Amino acid sequence: MTPVVGLDPSLTGLGLATGEGLSTISSKPAGDAIAARAQRIVTMADAVARRIPESSLVVIEGPAYAAQAQAGVHLRAGLWWVLAVELTHRGHTLVEVAPTALKKFATGKGNATKPDIRMALYQRAGLDVRDDNQADAWWLRQVGLHLVGDPDALPLPKAHLAVLAGVQYV
After folding, report:
1. Average pLDDT, stretch 115-125?
2. For labeling, which of 20, 42, 60, 157 is most exposed (least CB within 10 Å)?
3. CB-based burial of residue 148 (10 Å sphere; 0-12 exposed, 13-18 middle, 19+ buried)?
4. What is each CA distance from 131 to 25, 53, 87, in whole angstroms?
């Protein structure tokens, strides 16, 4: 069966969910120079790529377009695209899930909060995950497990599963 990975991109604490479990890849700025910012993104993408099993289906959260006014949007976009390039070049298949679709998949509400997502994880799977990025990554992996028909996919109501029709393959 195809390995499935959930990936919640973040420069400060990227969430990763694999068949082995949950992890966070952290990064701190090493300066404001272009070279330092670029190296931070490349280093994170390499760290992620080394943890993903060969020929995986990687379900990645898409950009939060409504968050454009926030600082760091340009860097987060860079990280997202470097991850996409690195992972596709390594032979992985990427599936993009919009933030609102992820929220609806996890909770049934497209406007759910981070605590709502963590609570849904606790209520449905009994996992008390305090890291928002890991919780998102866990749910993203569940999207992938459902897409490939994996027996480890968590049973969910039809309303939650309806978002699967809108996922975008990169």
Report:
1. 98
2. 157
3. middle
4. 12, 23, 24
CA 78 to chain centroid: 15
Write out the two tokens for 1.
């069966």
C-alpha to C-alpha distance for 19 and 12, rounded to whole angstroms:
23
Give 152's DSSP letter. Answer: T
Q: Name 27's Cβ contacts closer than 8 Å, sequence gap at least 6.
A: 11, 12, 14, 40, 43, 44
User: Tens digits of per-residue pLDDT, 71-98?
Assistant: 578 888 999 999 999 999 999 999 999 9
Q: What type of residue is 42?
A: V
Tally the residues of the chain. Answer: 170
